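Narrative of accomplishments. A recurring question from our advisory board has been how the design workflow behaves on a single, concrete structure rather than in aggregate. To address it, we present the structure tokens for one chain from the evaluation set, followed by the sequence designed for it. No filtering or post-editing was applied between the two.
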């Protein structure tokens, strides 16, 4: 699983959001969004902004390596 997909899932869990809800808010159908999170479809640069908007995070937040979270 990619760093981006892992971070998207982590933020969904932290915020108590369902995959279906995030997909809808970001403008993706459920299957495409599921495929993106599971590595069957590439998460492209143009997918990042709507996903971040749906999660209420910045693009840099979902691109950080796990070890960097919380460090400044």
């Amino acid at each position: 699983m990619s760093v981006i997909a892992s971070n998207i899932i982590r933020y969904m869990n932290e915020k108590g959001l369902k995959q279906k809800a995030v997909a809808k808010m970001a403008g993706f159908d459920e299957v495409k969004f599921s495929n993106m999170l599971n590595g069957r479809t590439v998460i492209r640069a143009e997918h990042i902004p709507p996903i971040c908007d749906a999660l209420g995070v910045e693009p840099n937040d979902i691109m950080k390596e796990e070890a960097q979270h919380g460090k400044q």
